[in-house]
Amino acid sequence: MRIHKVHQLHKERLARSTKPFNARGANVNRCEYCQVHKDYCICEHQPNVQSNAAFLLIMFDTEVLKPSNTGKLIADLIPETHAYLWSRTEPNPDMLALLQDDSYQPFVIFPEEQIENKALVTNDIVVEEGKTPLFILLDGSWREAGRMYRKSTYLHQLPVLSFNSEHLSSYIMRKASKDHQLSTVEVASLVLDLFGEKENAKHLECWFELFREHYLYSKRPVKGAERGMGLKHLIDFRTELKESNQI
């Protein structure tokens, strides 16, 4: 189990809470890292991959506390994933310094229809030589993400990567209001695919499937023989990946 920035942010946010965060399923005996029932913990299957991409998760205040949050799955997979809580009035200075770091090329991942300056919008990832793409995801509900972008002037001059995707969200834990609105981890998978890291994109899809499946088991415990195909799909993919890399 690799401890990452979202795990750390979760602990920091819990430490300064003045009262318990009563999310749905608050009484479930959860693993503190993967946030599913300890009987269905997926931590031993955490991916170990290499990536030339970096992600920045700007998380709404309570989003990091939600067991159903999928931003942590990106950090599980992509080694260089940064995570900060969003503040309207006091943005984290380390986060602002990261956005100004010349070794990165930032892209805000956001729907085109919510961007006033269409000149900022692109559908391609073109990275300057010697730079690492920094993909910025606003992690919260769609309404919260919209507010976060509008109120964060430091994002308004950055290029915006937008998808014209008809892909229907399979995110069934917190159903989005529109079919084309994807969960944070699904958007990250699309980003990795467009960036050319198709194996990592598929790996993230399989990891999300396993998390989603076991998260639902936390709500309705099932016997081993009745469990779904998430782990099998993940193992099959890793086996195929290993075999293809040996050719």
From TrEMBL:
<keyword id="KW-0949">S-adenosyl-L-methionine</keyword>
<keyword id="KW-0808">Transferase</keyword>
<dbReference type="Pfam" id="PF03942">
    <property type="entry name" value="DTW"/>
</dbReference>
<dbReference type="GO" id="GO:0016432">
    <property type="term" value="F:tRNA-uridine aminocarboxypropyltransferase activity"/>
</dbReference>
<dbReference type="GO" id="GO:0008033">
    <property type="term" value="P:tRNA processing"/>
</dbReference>
<dbReference type="InterPro" id="IPR039262">
    <property type="entry name" value="DTWD2/TAPT"/>
</dbReference>
<protein>
    <recommendedName>
        <fullName>tRNA-uridine aminocarboxypropyltransferase</fullName>
        <ecNumber>2.5.1.25</ecNumber>
    </recommendedName>
</protein>
<feature type="domain" description="DTW">
    <location>
        <begin position="27"/>
        <end position="220"/>
    </location>
</feature>
<dbReference type="InterPro" id="IPR005636">
    <property type="entry name" value="DTW"/>
</dbReference>
<keyword id="KW-0819">tRNA processing</keyword>
